[in-house]
Amino acid sequence: MSHAGYSVPRRRRWPLFLPFALVVLLAVAWSGLWSYAASQAKTEIAAWRAREAQAGRAQDCASQSVSGYPFRIEVRCEGATFTLKGAPTLELKLPSALAAVQVYDPKLLISEFTAPLDISELGRAPSYVVNWDLGQASVRGLPSRVERASLALDAPTVRDLGIVGDNTVFRARHLELHGREAAGSTPDNPVVETVLRLDGAVAEKLHPLAAKPIDSEIATVIRGINDIAPKPWPVRFKEWQARNGQIEITKARIAQDDVIATGAGTLKLTPRGGLDGNLQVTVVGIEKLLKMFNIERLMSEGQIGATISALDRLIPGLGGIARQNAAPGLVAALGQRTELEGKQAVTFPVRFADGAIFLGPFQVGQVAPLF
Known about the structure:
Layout: H1 14-54, E1 57-67, E2 72-84, E3 90-102, E4 105-114, E5 117-121, E6 128-131, E7 134-140, E8 148-154, E9 157-160, E10 168-171, E11 174-181, E12 191-201, E13 214-223, H2 233-242, E14 246-256, E15 259-269, E16 275-284, H3 286-292, H4 295-299, H5 302-314, H6 318-334, E17 336-340, E18 343-353, E19 356-359, E20 362-366
Antiparallel strand pairs: 1-2, 2-3, 3-4, 3-5, 4-7, 5-6, 6-9, 7-8, 8-11, 9-10, 11-12, 12-13, 13-14, 14-15, 15-16, 16-18, 17-18, 18-19, 19-20
Helix pairs in contact: 5-6
């Protein structure tokens, strides 16, 4: 049979290359988008540094590079320096800091920084050195308005170089600090929610009560801080008091050995800078807490102490028995028996009156005015 006049149609080849061509075009377009985003990142960094410098917070890098293609914009700063103007002006130095944003989510910045952090007065040798195994931070809301921020440090330590010998003044297994705008916050009336978590924190050189590891989680609402420009702390505290600033401790839990304390309340400052406010505290292991605050010394003074000393004069040794038997009564005087985390506890008020600290009815300390 003849097949004259019949021809097999030629197969079109271009559809085979179409997907490949689309992929190439998308790659070229994405590369252009990434290059534009990287250029914008450099512009934003320069503008941000200019704004920070005007506010008294200057930042600089010995060298800076941008990478992260194809999905991230990574800015690496080697030899990072931060200068905070004030009295005195402080200089902070880091070996390296890496900040990254996803191209599809540019408002979330994630950073990682290399220890140590040297803290010194401008032009002087470091006074403090902060170290850690892993340091990370994140900020949501840049470049316009910060909505929330977080800091996490594994195995942080703080050394005071002015101390001879063991100069570690703080150490912990882990530290976290979180902050965000609270509902109803405005630029004129800022409200910030914070959470501080410490795991295995020790600071015996700061206070004897912190000589053993402490685990804590403290959530607060801070009102009245609308200025973060560098300035001396007494000036900052005075301005905060004038704005009727206050700290509301919404939830706090502190544990050390078998002593557990939880609490909530509000603190502020008086016109002379004294701490003022009330906390409601619940404690497991109240007897150990009384020894920590040396309540026994308070019992040996004043009217209670005079009565017990009179017993000693009548019959030697009777006063010691009275002191031992006074402890249960003292616990009852502090507050009410209750239960916390399945253990027996006592709930009582802690009052701050213009700097004086009262544990129930007993004054246990004094906080110096903050300005």
